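Two quick folds needed for the group meeting slides. Do the first one here.
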Amino acid sequence: MPTEISGGDREATRYLIDEALGYVYPGALRAAASLGVADLLAGGPLTVADLAGRTGVHEDGLRRVLRVLATRGVFEELPDGRFALTPTGQSLRSDVPLSARPAVLMLTDTTLWRPAGEVELSLRQGGSVFEDLFGMSFFDYIARNQQTAAAFHTGMAAFSDQENELIAASYDFPGSGAVVDVGGGHGGFLLEILRRRPGLDGVLMDEEHVVAGHRLDTEEVKGRWRLAPGDFFTEVPAGANVYVVKRILHDWDDDGCVTILRNCRRAMVPGGRILVVDAVIPPGNEPHQAKAVDMMLMTAFPGRERTEPEFARLLAAAGLRIARIVPTGTVVSIVEAVEQ
């Protein structure tokens, strides 16, 4: 007897086919972000012909791309055929506070896109496939490609800008002393901390070409910060009572993370604390951005997102223990670590 096909079977098949087509959407989103379509629509709806003329692309193709993005609420196709920005699409503009555009361009860059398409290869050989595709590790690649490096660091800054204020507000930083932001990029998070604590001094540590693009030169924190170019695998600036490691450990394997954490532990004053600011993967089957990011990290980086028990083991190997985990109202939490 043939197996009877139920309506549920059909729905499940349709659902999985739609999921398999999901890669089309970020490709369309990247094209719109790269072409600056949202900026062009900031003044009001435009025809596809006008948009195509201003961006130098084919009109028919652009209409098809915008139509896909309209199904996701980024743009809206009006009855007269023009396209308009939605409230969500406004965040794709380059000139708005907390613009998502740099982060979108970073996350859809070929350096992350291609490895994510090779998950099966990653599973078969174990770990990152970046070197298979690009001939070197991710960080070696961006060190040799200025354009990719700029996109990565600008994207990470934009990624962080929408969360920095909430994270800084969620933790009771000391009113005096010093805080070192280890691998702090352009200093957006350190700036937010110093704004909230007028008696606190800050040190921004990252590679020299990264800290060169810092954002700390503002009147409100004048004289309360310094740059410390360096390699956090070698050493970190000594003498602070708080060391922040924000969105860094997830880039590295356990051995690399233990090295960074040990360097921070050796450098901090007695009674100091290390704040690991990263996603803590929750148990269960509920969606969480960190679960998707973790798969991206698996294919392109040596690192991973971690659960609370995994953080506990990592810290123990560095001579530390979890004092508490502080939720921040964002994807990431603050794992506060102290000496064992």
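Then this one, please, same format:
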Amino acid sequence: MYKILPMTRLGLETIQRNRSKVIKQVNELLYSDQHVYRVEEKVRCTTEKFPEGHLLFPGSIVVSSDTLLEKCQTDLTGEDISSSLSRLNLMKKIAFLDGLNCGSFCSDPFYLFFQTFGLKVDRISDLDIRNGILNEYELLIVPGGPDAGESYYEGLGEKGYEEIRGFVSRGGKYLGSCAGSYFPLTAEPNTVPSDVWLNMIPATDLHGLDYWRTGTGFVRVEFEDVMHPVALNVAMGNPSTIDMIYWEGPAFELLEGADIHVIARYKDFIASGKSLPSWSLENNEIAENAMKWANPLTTERFDDHLKGYPAIIEAKYGEGHMVLFSPHAEFGTCGTDHSMEENPNFLLLMNSIYYLSGRGE
């Protein structure tokens, strides 16, 4: 017998009201090498409450009946749903770059995310990377910063750049946010000095380092692939959108023949500066600071530089795999406490780590 932990966000029988706590417990099981499964496609099964059958949606967690997790569980009775399951995997060697020019206002929210979901992550420096420490890791997470990613060159230099390229090329995984997503892009002629970007994937930002052209504000992102593992438990049907905090991140421009998968695109401008809706920001200092930033995003800037552009993408480099966010999932949702238990944007990051970890054996 299995225990099913539904993870949907809708007001159904299957709603999971404490998803972050459940996922933290799931990660504890994964760190101890216990088997945890996730529903990959919608499946109907019989439960004690619904003997006539009930739908389980993608993203639901499945554990053995003797594994104790949150109270919100459904007992599976007499059903074989194994064909709809995949074993969840979690990389155990994760590095987080906290080097020169990685801004604390971008790094600290990541540390909160790691804590919320019980993730074991090592903070590493530029010098660590230059000395070859990435050989010990499976995933590198690169946060945003005060510039567009080119400033990381000041700490890493050519040696650090080559270490990152080699790490991913050999099969390493990379998760980037904002400046950390500018970083692997390819510099187009007459835009940026090619030395300051990693030049790893066939995508660019046509405006080079002129990130000041956009500004900061609240935006709405629409999933182009609602069934993508990164969107699990966040997207529910097609279309699906999520509101995020944007802070001068890249507008990904895919180059000709690029083998890059678009997970989500920028859809709508919501607010910036003094155009704030009637939300209270007192519990999310980052959101409040975004509204006060000296360079506010505007409807015109959004329409000119972001609307319709990819906001979340994935790409391959050599044997490695990357997921890149232009907006800041680690900043939380617009107008709510970014440390809240049910922060859906944190789920995007956790899903990305599960996805990059691959399926368990």
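Slide caption for protein two: The two ends are 21 Å apart (CA to CA).
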